[in-house]
């Protein structure tokens, strides 16, 4: 049986923030709002905890 590689995180945001995200998605290269949020999370972790970010990718390389 294959392990699922994705996990679901549900968050509530103010309507104004959701509308702002939608407008940004329309203007840039993100496929949709979820793609934007995933990218924002990656950027935040890379900026605030670069050692954890590097560790994640080193572990991924070792595991194939």
Task: Explain what you see.
The protein is an all-alpha fold. It is 66% helix and 0% strand. The chain contains 3 helices and no strands. The chain has helices at 15-27, 33-48, 50-62. Helix 2 (33-48) crosses helix 3 (50-62). It is elongated. The relative contact order is 0.07.
Which term fits the overall shape? elongated
Integer average pLDDT: 90
Helix and strand string, N-terminal first?
HHH
Class based on secondary structure composition and strand pairing: mainly alpha
Biggest β-sheet: count, sense, barrel? none
User: Percent of residues in beta strands?
Assistant: under 5%
E-strand count:
0
The count of helical stretches stands at 3
Residue ranges: pLDDT <50 for 5 or more in a row?
A: none
Distance between the termini: 18 Å
Kindly provide the radius of gyration, computed on alpha-carbon positions and rounded to a whole number of angstroms.
Answer: 15 Å
Assembly category: single chain
Assign a percent range to the helix content: 55-70%
């Amino acid at each position: 049986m294959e392990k699922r590689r994705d996990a679901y995180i549900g968050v509530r945001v103010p309507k104004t923030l959701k509308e702002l995200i939608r407008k940004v998605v329309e203007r840039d290269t993100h496929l949709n709002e979820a793609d934007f949020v995933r990218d924002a999370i990656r950027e935040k972790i890379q900026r605030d905890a670069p050692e954890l970010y590097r560790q994640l990718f080193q572990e991924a390389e070792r595991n194939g």
